[in-house]
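Lab notebook page, bench 4
Experiment: in silico fold of construct C2
Operator: M.H.
Input chain length: 205 residues
Purpose: comparison with the prior construct
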Amino acid sequence: MRELLRVISRFVALFYNEFIVSKFNSAMDVIYTEIACNKFKSVGNNPFIQRSIDVLGGENITIGDDFYCFKGLRIEAYSEHNGETFSPTIKIGNNVSFNPYCHIGAIDEIVIEDNVLFASRVFVTDHFHGTITSDQLDKAPNKRILFSKGPIRIKRNAWIGEGVAIMPGVTIGENAIVGANSVVTKDVPDNTVVGGIPAKVIKML
């Protein structure tokens, strides 16, 4: 049996070519990009969206030029949840890049300005499940009302590190750098490096 598997693997290797496979995957991503762009209200010029992403409420999401997105993006603009209605917007500027497995969720507003870079596994949300009142705590978390403390704005040229969580009502300043695995609960000034849980200013740039 082992010898048969060895023969089969050699046969497959004759036809396997990394260059061909790479070209095939690139072609499939081009096709997928065109399909995925139709899920949004609008997308600018020259997008790239790697297979595959999850989109909810795309009619409330606009994207600028040169959008670059690796696999696993989950982007959600909730218009309804548990019988409540919302008017969410997500606005993404030009030359914004997402590395794999980021999650963006809005019931209010999230604005991401030009030239923002997201590392992998970044979480950005403008809302919580519940208001932490006694009547809400009696309910299962997924049955609680969605509550926003305010919109999120990530200003131009910000760099968001691996595993960062950005909480509701926060503004990330221009040119700011948020260190890996930080939890951002307050505004980040322009031209600063922040890090930690909760994130604090480490240095000025």
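Observations: The chain has a mean pLDDT of 90. Residues 18-37 form the longest helix (20 residues).
Next step: discuss at group meeting.
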